[in-house]
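User: Run a structure prediction on this.
Assistant: Running it now.
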Amino acid sequence: MTQALTRQKLYERDLNLWFEETLGCLRSRDLQNLDIEALIEEIEGLAGRDRREIKSFLKLLFIHALKRCYVLSPETYNHWISEIEEFQSQLSEAIEQSPSLKRFLLDSIPEAYTKGLIKVQKLYPNVSFSNQNPFSNQLDILLESPFWEKSDCV
């Protein structure tokens, strides 16, 4: 009981040291001294982090694709395309690492598009963007460049 309480305090006091000690307990199969509650909290946090990253990358992908399609600024096209390709890469890596998140990514498209649209509308109030997502909802198309050329916005 005292060791679990001490470990819980360690989790709150020094997360890195808690990680090291937790890994040591797991490697030595010392389940008696494992802070199970904190471990559960960390694993739940990791799962949430992956989902937040996917939503963020997807929103940023749409922001840059909308700029590339609707904002007349040829001098910045290469930058926007570079950003799009980076977010495609990040999303591809996330799905490669955790294929079970593919459905989550696909389900997140409408919300990510709406949030991205709101952002670009604030940045470019004089540009008329489509309220309906003009881009594909198919992951294989969305993650390949230049997917925006296959959309209704070009």
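The radius of gyration is 21 Å.
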